[in-house]
Amino acid sequence: MTTTSSTFVQPTTRLAIDELAPGMAKALNGLELAAQRTTLEKPLRELVKLRVAQINGCVYCVDMHSRDAIAGGDTWRRVSLVAVWREAPFFTPRERAAFDLAEAMTRIADGEVSQQIWDEAAAHFEEKELAELVWHIAIINTWTRLGATARPWTLSGDENA
Q1: How far apart are CA 45 and CA 136, in angstroms?
Q2: Cα–Cα distance between 50 and 7 in angstroms, integer?
Q3: Each residue of 114-133: pLDDT tens digit?
Q4: Which residues are CB-contacts of 18 (< 8 A; sequence separation ≥ 6)?
Q5: Whose CA is closest to 92, among 45, 36, 44?
């Protein structure tokens, strides 16, 4: 008979960057607060953050934005399928345009953001919204790259939550 261990294994913290560089941490937190006061709908923001976190491999951010999306009213099914959004039928054209732009910006080293991706995003977002979306993607890329590199934070909550 096999047994299942209920031990929660916490990712190892590498560097407490927030405590070691508090001015920079405070500035990034201020930018995050400013980004929360935008016209973009919160469910879309959370799904975009989740997709960027998946690409960048930040366990902390994937966990947080998955939970935040569900707490905000999104469904477990949609959240679990963000990684395969192209094949999943549960996302709107607006969400798909946002995911495509987020992926292109996150993988910018592979090539520039194509005009086709930009035009599709511009077709679904007003200019101000598009500017805010670009900022949101840039900000979450910063957070996820910090998280995946330094692993400065711990996962919170219950493993079964």
Answers
A1: 7
A2: 25
A3: 999 999 999 999 999 999 99
A4: 25, 152
A5: 44
